[in-house]
Design brief:
This protein is α/β, with parallel strands linked by helices. The protein has a single domain, classed as Vaccinia Virus protein VP39 (Rossmann fold, 3-Layer(aba) Sandwich). The protein is built from nine helices and eight strands. Strand 3, helix 5 and strand 4 form a beta-alpha-beta unit.
Length: 224
């Protein structure tokens, strides 16, 4: 993507009612206006809140918002030029139950309050395979503790990835921590019993992985 297109998308994001782009400084200073107030101040209802972390182009957040109007969805990603597409689509489809926040995932506790989120989706994160990159894996122990604090009791997490390494690493970590894995599959498209958004919503990258014949893995788990 050219720099002109990126700048154009950044400007459009500024005008979108469903996009929030706080500075890192304001987040760290706990000056984010929706933390603990997403239901009353942004969505103006008390529906469950579902967060998608590393939402990319926003396909999953938008797809889930269409299928589950009884929930509210918040997609997080540091690359606003990517989720511009999802935000624009949501506005075009008049979906008032989905929002996008431009932020690093490590700051998630400055975006949501304790127990504010009902469910988390992590879709096709960078597996950060090199050992020195483990601190950036979105399912390492530090990140899991962050998620646990913002999740409601008995909240659910989903990991959907093409990386067998990420799948195995996360499953092993959860087992070692004594956490509950409620479902695990190493190739969801070979399980014909799986229905719904897990296989019906496909991201831009997922379609590429499927074209390369890569198996798509899935974990569903809890942190209580």
């Amino acid at each position: 993507m050219g720099s002109k297109n990126k700048l154009k998308r950044f400007r459009e994001n500024d005008s979108f009612s469903n996009v929030i782009q706080p500075s890192r400084e304001k987040l760290i200073a706990d000056e984010f206006p929706y933390k603990g107030k997403w239901s009353e101040a942004f969505f103006c209802n008390d529906r469950p809140i579902v967060a998608e972390l590393g939402c990319g182009k926003g396909e999953y957040s938008v797809g889930l918002a269409q299928r589950f109007p009884e929930n509210n969805f918040v997609g997080l990603d540091i690359k606003g030029a990517r989720f511009w597409r999802g935000a624009k689509t949501a506005l075009e489809k008049r979906l008032n139950n989905v929002a996008f926040v431009r932020s690093q995932i490590e700051l998630i506790e400055h975006i949501f309050a304790k127990g504010e989120v009902d469910e988390i989706w992590i879709t096709f994160p960078d597996p950060q395979i090199k050992p020195k990159r483990e601190k950036h894996r979105l399912t390492n122990a530090v990140f899991l503790n962050r998620y646990k604090r913002i999740l409601k009791e008995n909240g659910t997490l989903h990991l959907k990835t093409d990386s067998e390494f990420m799948f195995g690493y996360t499953q092993g970590l959860l087992t070692g921590l004594g956490k509950e894995v409620t479902y695990a599959h190493q190739d969801i498209y070979k399980n014909h019993d799986l229905k719904g958004p897990l296989t019906e919503i496909q991201t831009f990258y997922e379609k590429q992985f499927l074209a390369e014949k890569k198996p798509i893995t899935y974990l569903k788990f809890k942190l209580d």
